[in-house]
Amino acid sequence: NPLIMLCMSMFPYGYKFDKDRLVMRWLFEGIFSFRVFFVYSSKEEAEAEAGEYFYYLVRRNVITHATPNSRRRAHPPDEAGAWQWNVNQLQYQFLATKSAAIGFAFTSATLNLLAEASATGHDDASRIPHRLTLHHDDPNIPSLLQEIDLSQTRSLAVSGAVSIGGVPLNKFVNLRVLDVEGWENFGDEDLLRICRSKMFFLEYLSVRNTRVSNLPPEIKELFSLRVLDASYT
Prior knowledge:
single chain; 12% strand
């Protein structure tokens, strides 16, 4: 599935994850959704194929085992061990550029392409940010996000030192996936704001490794939520 290769460019370079969590993210990104309903007899079969593709990326050295001093294996004995998104830097940049060119996903580095298209009036389907990932703080991001239509964005990932005030969470009304793992500036008040934001379609929410210290009662307002990752908080 070439879309999974493009999906990998949405993670920060050197990002660590476990296999099951990554596969779950792929499924909620909708990459396998067509085949889930029309080819597979169950969601478990879709998960199985996604798992096999994970090991394909391992064999291609796109994903490597991150345990110190370990040898890379296609099927390591410890499935819970950490893996790392690790690919040649030039290939990583190519994937991010290609992903933006077809409108699959935009990163902090390619976000300016959207703003340029909006400024010139070329707002075709490939210029709608269906997936947006922000992992690097940039003083231009707040103004760029104000110029872009975010109403059709289905997936948003933010991490690192990105300014909390520079990301207008209230504009992402159709989000299905929200991943703020490792967002240094994200805390309890921001989670409460999300719960009150009328994100009625949100199915996957990760506040992993943030400053969140409690889950507010208002989280029940996220009616469609199916997966909540609040680990390492």
